[in-house]
Amino acid sequence: MERKELRNLLERLSAGAADVDEVMTKLRGEPFRDLGFAKLDSHRALRQGIAEVIYGAGKRPEQIAEIAGAMLADGQKTVLITRMSAEAAAVVEKTVPLSYHEMGRVGIAGEMPRPDGRGKIVIATGGTSDMPVAEEAALTAEALGNEVTRLYDVGVAGLHRLLSHTDDVMTASAIVAIAGMEGALASVIGGMADCPVIAVPTSIGYGASFGGLSALLSMLNSCASGVSVVNIDNGFGAAYLASMINHIGVN
């Protein structure tokens, strides 16, 4: 059960539109559901505001299908599945209503929610090669109920490309800046924006980039204030944090 649903139920109880037995039935669910190979945290949305997400890598397609099906059966309207292969998606979609996005390796079971955040989240990349990580971030943010603006291939090698989107940068509630190579995009955006900037280093670059470590260290050493950094290629983690920022003050 999500917070909004619980609040609505309690308001109905207070107004006399619902009885105690109805409320007790809704709240009777266990804090987790044991599937044998997995324990679903069914109270996470109530506790944290965002329901549990399925990490697809390393799980058998049948396991993903059973977990997603159980979540949907328990009333979760949107189930986000990250790091999901196309082969797994082909199996899961036979039993679960699934929308699969191959570039970001993201599956969304159920329905995509309407945006209910305070504003918009901007997802920006240094280059086209960063788009798989960016799509993981963008789809995650959308699945968590955010309006997303994508600014792809706006890196520092051609700064005028980013400057042509100054209005988008200046009106965002949160920005996810994704870049490999030397990771300079986060610092540039951090010097322009008046909102939190979440930097994502990617494993894109030549030999001395060390699989994204060079970009990670550059972003950690950014001289721009208001820039935080997540792990290499972690588009999901960045979008999750951006969504939390965009939902501050939203019931």
UniProtKB/TrEMBL annotation:
One Pfam family from the record: AIRC
InterPro entries: P2CMN_synthase_LarB, PurE_dom
Domain called PurE: residue spans: 119-250
Signal peptide per UniProt: none
Swiss-Prot/TrEMBL GO biological process terms: 'de novo' IMP biosynthetic process
Recorded GO MF terms: hydrolase activity
Protein name: Nickel pincer cofactor biosynthesis protein LarB
Organism whose genome encodes this protein: Cloacibacillus evryensis
Gene that encodes the chain: larB
